[in-house]
Amino acid sequence: MAIVAVQLGQCGNQIGQEVFNAICSDVRGTHGLCSKKENESYHDACKERFFSEEESEVPVARAVLVDMEPKVISQTLSVAARSGYWKYDDRSHFCQKQGSGNNWANGYSVHGPRHKEVIMNLVQKEAEKCDRLGGFFTIMSMAGGTGSGLGAFVTQCLRDAFPTSFILNHVIWPYGTGEVIVQNYNSVLTLSHLYQSSDALLVHENDVIHKICAQLMNIKQISFRDVNQVIAHQLGSVFQPTYTAESALHYGRNPLGDLMETLVPHPEFKMLGLRNIPQMPENFLAYSTFSWPGLIKHLRQMLIANAKMEEGIDWQVRPPRLGSSTPSSHSTNKPLHFNTSIANLVILRGKDTHSVDLGSFRDPSLYTSWLSPQDAFKAWKTPRAFNKYEKSATLVSNSQFLLKPLDNVVGKAWNMFASKAYIHQYTKFGIEEEDFLDSFTALEQVISSYTSL
C-alpha cells in the first residue's frame, strides 16, 4: 500500500527530502547476500510505498510539499531533481511569500483556513495516484509557526477528508536550550491538537540526534543536514519493506496499518520513540563486525534504561521483579528509573535474521500489566541489509520515553502562561486563553496516563 508524505514547513521539507534520499539510496545499493528475486521483491515493495512512475521513468515521490515561504521548497525540488534517481512532482507543492513568524496561531488560524482548499486538492490528487492508499505520513517541527500551526491544521483536515486512512505524524522535538522564545507554547498547542487528529506521533528529539552526530557519527561541525540525515536513516530503517509475523512469505503490504496495530493498542497512548543500532560513519563500516546477540542486548538495555544511543547506557537499570513495584538493582546509591513499555516492535535487517533470539523482549516485566507479552511485542525481519549495514536493528517503542521532556515543555509553557507572557501574539490571531487551558489539560492527562503505567 502507498504512503503519501506531507512535508510541512522548513523542517518537514528538509527532512522529507533526506528520507526519500535514504530510501532511494538503499534500494539502489547492491546486496549480494540476497537472491535476485529477493532484491526485486524488496525494490517493488518499496516503490509501491513511496514512488509513482512518470513518462521519464524517474521515480516520483508520493509527497505534497507545503511551506509559507518559497525558498526551502525551491531548494528541495531542485536537490531531488539533480540526484537523477528520483524527483518530486513539480505540481505537488504549495508555497506563499509570507511565513508564519514562529507563531502557531498564525499558521493554524490564518494560513490554514485561507489555503485549505488548495492544499487539500494537492493531497487529494496525490492520493488518487495510489492504487491502494495506506495512509499519510506528515513531517513537521513543533517549534516554529508553519510546521507546527499549519501542520496541526492540515492533520485535522486529513482526518476529516480521509477518516479511514492511517495518519502518522513525525514530529521534531525542539532543542531544550531554545530555538524560539515561544517554542514551548507552540509545542503544547501542536501536541494537544495532533493527539486528537492522528493515529500516532513518532517523535525525534533534536538534542538526542545532535548527540548521535557528535558522539557516534564523529561529526565536528554539525549542520542541520547532518541531523536530518541521521533522522532519515532511522525512519528508512522502519519504513523500508520487511516480513511481518503475519506475512512471512511476502513483504508487509500496509506499513502504517501494521505499525498502528502493533504499537497503539489504546488511543490514550500515541507517543512512539525510535532507536536504531549500529550507527557510525560510513568509512568505519568496513572495519566493524556485529553479532546479533550483542546488538539485541544493547537494544534491550537502551529500552529499559531509556538510553537514546548505544554509548553511555546505564547497565544498572533492571526491570522490576514481577509482583514488586520497585526496580531491582545492584546499585543502592542512586534512584534508577525503569522505562515501562506498552508495546515494542523490533525490526531486524541483514544476514541470519531468522536465527536471532528475541526472547528477552518478551519478558512480561518490561510491559504494563494490561497487555500480554505476545500482544505487546512483535518482530519484523528481512535478510536484506539496510544502507550498507550488514546487520542492523531498530526499536520502535510506545513507552514512557518522552515523559520527562513532555513534562518539562508543559511546565515551561505553563510558567509563561501564568505570567501572561506573549499571549497577545496568539490572541490577535484568534487563539484565546481557553484554548491554551484546553491544551494544557489534554497534555496533563497524557502525562498522567503514561506516568501510571
UniProtKB/TrEMBL annotation:
<dbReference type="InterPro" id="IPR000217">
    <property type="entry name" value="Tubulin"/>
</dbReference>
<dbReference type="GO" id="GO:0005634">
    <property type="term" value="C:nucleus"/>
</dbReference>
<keyword id="KW-0539">Nucleus</keyword>
<dbReference type="GO" id="GO:0030030">
    <property type="term" value="P:cell projection organization"/>
</dbReference>
<keyword id="KW-0493">Microtubule</keyword>
<keyword id="KW-0342">GTP-binding</keyword>
<dbReference type="GO" id="GO:0007017">
    <property type="term" value="P:microtubule-based process"/>
</dbReference>
<keyword id="KW-0963">Cytoplasm</keyword>
<comment type="similarity">
    <text>Belongs to the tubulin family.</text>
</comment>
<dbReference type="GO" id="GO:0005737">
    <property type="term" value="C:cytoplasm"/>
</dbReference>
<dbReference type="InterPro" id="IPR002967">
    <property type="entry name" value="Delta_tubulin"/>
</dbReference>
<dbReference type="InterPro" id="IPR036525">
    <property type="entry name" value="Tubulin/FtsZ_GTPase_sf"/>
</dbReference>
<dbReference type="InterPro" id="IPR008280">
    <property type="entry name" value="Tub_FtsZ_C"/>
</dbReference>
<dbReference type="GO" id="GO:0005874">
    <property type="term" value="C:microtubule"/>
</dbReference>
<protein>
    <recommendedName>
        <fullName>Tubulin delta chain</fullName>
    </recommendedName>
</protein>
<dbReference type="InterPro" id="IPR023123">
    <property type="entry name" value="Tubulin_C"/>
</dbReference>
<dbReference type="GO" id="GO:0005929">
    <property type="term" value="C:cilium"/>
</dbReference>
<keyword id="KW-0547">Nucleotide-binding</keyword>
<comment type="subunit">
    <text>Dimer of alpha and beta chains. A typical microtubule is a hollow water-filled tube with an outer diameter of 25 nm and an inner diameter of 15 nM. Alpha-beta heterodimers associate head-to-tail to form protofilaments running lengthwise along the microtubule wall with the beta-tubulin subunit facing the microtubule plus end conferring a structural polarity. Microtubules usually have 13 protofilaments but different protofilament numbers can be found in some organisms and specialized cells.</text>
</comment>
<comment type="function">
    <text>Acts as a positive regulator of hedgehog signaling and regulates ciliary function.</text>
</comment>
<dbReference type="GO" id="GO:0005525">
    <property type="term" value="F:GTP binding"/>
</dbReference>
<dbReference type="InterPro" id="IPR017975">
    <property type="entry name" value="Tubulin_CS"/>
</dbReference>
<feature type="domain" description="Tubulin/FtsZ GTPase">
    <location>
        <begin position="47"/>
        <end position="246"/>
    </location>
</feature>
<dbReference type="InterPro" id="IPR003008">
    <property type="entry name" value="Tubulin_FtsZ_GTPase"/>
</dbReference>
<keyword id="KW-0206">Cytoskeleton</keyword>
<dbReference type="GO" id="GO:0005200">
    <property type="term" value="F:structural constituent of cytoskeleton"/>
</dbReference>
<keyword id="KW-0970">Cilium biogenesis/degradation</keyword>
<keyword id="KW-0966">Cell projection</keyword>
<dbReference type="GO" id="GO:0005814">
    <property type="term" value="C:centriole"/>
</dbReference>
<dbReference type="Pfam" id="PF00091">
    <property type="entry name" value="Tubulin"/>
</dbReference>
